[in-house]
Design a protein that fits this description.
Layout lengths: L10 H25 L5 H26 L1 H10 L8 H7 L11 H12 L3 H4 L2 E2 L5 E2 L3 E7 L5 E7 L7 H21 L7 H15 L2 H14 L6 E2 L12 E5 L4 E2 L10 H22 L1 E3 L7 E3 L5 E3 L5 E3 L2 H16 L2 H10 L10 H10 L1 H4 L11 H15 L8 H18 L5 H17 L4
Parallel strand pairs: 5-10
Antiparallel strand pairs: 1-3, 2-3, 3-4, 4-6, 7-9, 8-11, 9-10
Amino acid sequence: MAERKGLTSGRARRAIKIGGLASQVGSSYLWTSLRRPFLESGRYEQALLDTHLRNARRIVEGSQQLRGAFMKLIQMLSTRADLLPGEALDILKATQSSVPPMDYPTIAKQIRRELGKAPEQLFASFEREAFAAASLGQVHRARLRDGREVAVKIQYPGVDATVEQDLGNLKLLLRALQAIAGDLMRQKIDTKTIYAELEERLREELDYAAEARNIAEFNRLLGDDEGIVLPRVERELSSRRVLTMSYIDGYRLADVFGAETDAKLRAWVAEKYYCLVWRQILEFGVLHTDPQPGNYLVTYHPRLGILDFGSVRHFSEAVRKASLQLAQAIVARDDAAMAAALVKLGYLDRAQEPAPMVEVVYLLFEPVITDRPYHPDEYDAVGKAARVGEIAFEHKLYKSPRHSIFLLRALIGLDGIMKGLGARMNYAALFRDCVRHAARARRAPDR
């Protein structure tokens, strides 16, 4: 396995690389736009798609060279269907796969710096080779003195020093993407809102003490669910940049995808994950917003395990309550109640005609209003996104409240995981049950 020696650093070097990347992306779209009058409609559409794909590859290559915070930001952008088409987003999703880990001496030095002792002094055993590596850190298996197995997550040295640089430089790339969305894709995006949300979530992911608190909160919220297994934090062996948790063994969620896996197991996992997402949104107002399959395991019992809690969004009670009201309106097909909830959530102004936005909701929520056994592949996410874009452009539906950014990320992830599991079931009935459960739970005296 190749080893990572460090992060591309230095404000000037990173600024030059990201600035050059933004310039390349912007220039390529400008050239495509200039060619538009000279191309037939079909040829122009193909040229535009080719440009999207070429730029997605540029962004991926740039993030892999820079790594660290910039790669994490690109992973977050890879869920933004309003910035690039699905084919380009598929390329961006390559940044979500594992990356080569850093060498052991570098990691051991980081543990000593954070916890005061070398791994060999802190643990009965510590595996020198990481079993998982990502944009911000890597994870090693270890054993405590009492024999319990743990997973030790270590943040890469210096990654936090690149955050300010990368957030500043990200604005250059967002400006280029804003021009693309406005001039070529007929979409209007609020880059300030996107930037603010990305910044907040990135800073949270770099703070392992905050992640430890998220783990404790999810243990409290989901403690009554015997189908869920969560890690527990070893606080004396954790810090802001090192997080030691109980080790959970099982199959990676992606290993359960595909028709070769037992259909009953896939159906069980699909129902469990589906209800888990809606319970977080409608009942808790606390949402795990990093829905890539690598963050989940299926244990041998079976139980669904959640591994990473760096990206968690807390919604205000007003947003949670309005989200539940919207869900109840969708179930009841009550357009007036739906419009009222959309105003509360910030998608509509009070004086705005609600019908176009209500149509958007029905398009996006097709699986939960189709009251029959439904296969996830029936849902054409790309086609629906295109139609939503047309409606938004025609009726100037440009409001994108900040809380919606990572909610959208979680729901796109839900769609992807449901497609991966491929379980045919009545999702409308499941959704109704989730809505009723959330309404009952919030009325209970202990809530």
